[in-house]
Write a structure and sequence with these properties.
alpha/beta, Rossmann fold, 9 helices
Length: 261
C-alpha cells in the first residue's frame, strides 16, 4: 500500500470517528433558593441576592443552562416556610430542582429568645430549632429525594465590633450544631457564611443587618463552586476551595455524612 493511500485511509478514519463521536451533553442545573430573608436577598443594594447571581457564577464554571427559582420571605420561620411548602403549586415548582439553597432558622431563634416566647433553657430552644430545621429539610427531601440541600450557616449581623467578637464563637457553635444535626444525611452540606461576613462593611448599607452586595456575590460564588463540583465529581472525591470534604452521594444503603463547605 502506498503512503498516499495509507494517508487517505487514516484521514477518512479520523473523519468518521469525529462524525460518530457525540457532542458532550450540555451541563444544566435548576437551583431553588428558598427560605427566609437571605433567600429573598434582603439588604442587597443591587437587588439580586443569591438567586440573581447564580446564573452568571455557574455559567463562568461551565454550566450551560441555569434555571433559578427564588422562594424567600423576609421574617419567615420554619413554621411559615412549612406552610409555603405545603402548597401544591410550590411543591410542583420545586419538584424539578437539582439543588436547594436553604436559609432558615434565624427567625425561629430570634422569636424564641427575643419574642417573649421562650420555651425552656437556651439548650432546649436550640435543640427545638434544630429539629424544626430538620423537619424543613425532610419536607424538601419529600419534594425531591435526589436534590442536594445547601444549608446556609450563621453570621454576625451586628456591625458593632465588640459585640461581633462576642458572637463569633456562638456562630461557630451554631454551624457545628447544624453539621451534627445532619451528620447522617449525605445530601446536606452547611455553607459557611461567617468568613464572608467577617467585618461590618460586608453588611448592607441599607439595613446594617443583612449581607450587602459584595457578601451576596461571594456567597453565590461559593455555592456555584459547590454545585459545579457536584456535577463533575466522582463519589467522595470532590472538595470545596477551602478544603472541606464534600459529602458523598447517597448510596443504596443510605450511608450518610454531612460537612461544612
Amino acid at each position: 500500500m502506498t503512503s498516499s493511500i495509507r494517508t487517505a485511509i487514516l484521514a477518512a478514519g479520523f473523519a468518521v470517528a469525529a462524525i460518530a463521536s457525540p457532542a458532550p451533553a450540555p451541563r444544566q442545573i435548576h437551583v431553588a433558593v428558598v427560605g427566609d430573608s437571605l433567600a429573598y436577598g434582603a439588604g442587597d443594594e443591587e437587588k439580586k441576592g443569591i438567586a440573581g447571581r447564580l446564573e452568571a457564577e455557574l455559567g463562568a464554571l461551565g454550566i450551560d443552562s441555569v434555571v433559578t427559582t427564588k422562594l424567600g420571605t423576609t421574617g419567615a420561620t420554619t413554621r411559615d416556610f412549612g406552610f409555603v411548602l405545603s402548597q401544591p403549586k410550590t411543591r410542583s415548582e420545586l419538584a424539578s430542582a437539582d439543588a436547594f439553597v436553604l436559609s432558615i432558622g434565624a427567625n425561629d431563634l430570634r422569636e424564641a429568645f427575643l419574642g417573649g416566647r421562650a420555651f425552656g433553657s437556651p439548650i432546649d430552644i436550640v435543640d427545638k430549632v434544630l429539629r424544626d430545621i430538620a423537619g424543613t429539610v425532610d419536607d424538601l427531601h419529600r419534594i425531591n429525594p435526589r436534590a442536594r440541600v445547601l444549608l446556609l450557616g450563621g453570621y454576625t449581623p451586628i456591625p458593632e465590633e465588640r459585640v461581633a467578637l462576642f458572637l463569633e464563637p456562638i456562630i461557630a457553635l451554631w454551624d457545628a450544631a447544624l453539621i451534627l444535626q445532619f451528620v447522617e444525611d449525605p445530601l446536606v452540606s452547611v455553607v459557611r457564611l461567617s468568613d464572608i461576613l467577617d467585618r461590618p462593611e460586608r453588611l448592607s448599607t441599607l439595613d446594617s443587618f443583612h449581607p450587602g452586595s459584595e457578601a451576596y456575590q461571594e456567597a453565590a460564588r461559593r455555592i456555584a463552586g459547590l454545585l459545579a463540583a457536584d456535577s463533575l465529581s466522582v463519589e467522595g472525591k470532590a472538595a470545596d476551595a477551602s478544603g472541606f470534604q464534600k459529602p458523598p452521594a447517597a448510596s443504596q444503603d443510605k450511608k450518610r455524612g454531612a460537612s461544612l463547605e
